[in-house]
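Let's do one together. I've listed all components of the complex below, 588 residues spread over two lines.
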Amino acid sequence: MAKTSDLDVAYVARLARLDLTNAETALFQRQLGDVLRYAEKLCEVDVSHVEAAAHAVPIFNVFREDEPRDWFTAKQALSNAPSQANGLFIVTKVVE
Amino acid sequence: MTAKDLPAMSIAELQSLLRRREVSPREVIDALRARIQDVDGEIDAYLSHDFEAAAKEAEKANVDLPLGGVPIAIKDIISVAGEPCTCASKILHGYRAPYDATVIRKLRAAGAIPFGKTNMDEFAMGSSTENSAMKLTRNPWDLSRVPGGSSGGSAAAVAADEAFGGLGTDTGGSIRQPAALSGIVGLKPTYGRVSRFGVVAFASSLDQVGPLTKTVRDSALIMNAIAGHDLQETTSLNEPVPDYSAGLGRDLRGVRLGLAKEYMIEGADPQVKAAIDAAVKHLNSLGADIVDVSLPHTDYATAVYYILATAEASANLARFDGVRYGHRAENPKDLLDHYGRTRGEGFGPEVKRRIILGTYVLSSGYYDAYYLRAQKVRELIRQDFAKAFEKVDALVSPTSPMPAFKFGERTTEPLHMYLADIFTSPANLAGICGISVPCGFADADGRRLPIGLQLLGKALDEARILQIAHAYEKSTDWHKARPPIAAAIHKA
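Okay, and this is what the predicted structure of the assembly comes out as:
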């Protein structure tokens, strides 16, 4: 298992698109270091012959008939939009 | 009987009054409203409620339906059309659900009235409801202590008689642990038994919806309404739904109950240990055989849980990007600034911590070491249970290693809070069902604090653990005890 000191909270926060204050970064660095050190106990377990379980219960692809149904109206879908116009979500500019 | 007595009733008692037309659904809503006005200033279980809407539904309620005219409190992570669904997070401030979750649709079909949205740890991440961005919910048994979490609002509302029953969600113990700490009954169904469609996702391979109630019978009644297959949800099990109340009343002769030595941990509160020992003796005296079993990978469950749950949460919470709903940062200079500030401003500390941890364990170079290894140990935990259930019908343990703790007692070190899930998260990892029932009290500072007994059953064996829990409840008086807040108001 990797060294827990590898955790760089500021770097991971950028990956997660999550701004942290300096105080949060320092606090999480320490707290999550403790959590990862605790998680190192998983190294004791011999998992060489174990297949990973994605779900506790076997789950397969589930399909339903591909038929149109009544669902959201555009108005409902936009009802919680932080910014909207002309039946569309207004988003932050992506291209210059 | 006066209107003032109504809120103290169980769902089953309320139903019999409603069916005999001795009380009307409208009178029930009014009585509940009065009760909430009396006590919720002290408890703070609710985040929102719409009396007018509930009263309107009550006028047309069909009391002959299975839950006809019965109001049910809903954890604020479950969508009720037109009502707020904030997950107790600033990032969903002002959000209103555009549709009913499947569980709400099913409750309505059974005649129930969804009434009030209850407080919780933000995005169901926590074991004390202290991570709510909105407010603290207090334990009705001792207002200086937490009600447990994350479904602490539903648990406290039911315990304080300001709800007849409630819905919660359980990802690592979030129904059973607050039920134990608040002195009520909480059931986590088998993974896939109850649809999560319309429920905000935390950790999708672990989340389940279930009831918090005053009695085991009430738990069965709600399960009858909400269990079942849902085409809207791919993990929903297409298995027949039994009548969960049918087996209640059967005795325990021939029932084999497993006691896992790994659950006898050093750190558990001695009063909790004593109460569980007494409960096991009592179950034995009712005819159950007590069998020693081993769940050798128990000690790894908390580590596995916090790797998998945070990994899944980091992916699920990516949807909170400030585009289609929820908080959006003002005047972002570019798209990265938009995402980073929207999420930094909207999420609280515990949610941020878990997003960081989850992103890290999934990131390149660490995926195999943490996430994949945790998935493999999860499989070993699942196999432990499968082996144990070859020998026994259900497993017995404490629900929580300690009774309700004080505000702030466990918040400074997240790992301390995480260890509160030690007896509950293995069931989520294995996908099996579990229930917590009141089994005694601990004394602390002159107060009585409830203790919960956990029964774990095989996948889809809810009827069995309900039957065992009911036999225990019927022959004990723990569930009849009322918290001081209920008693004080009742006298006044």
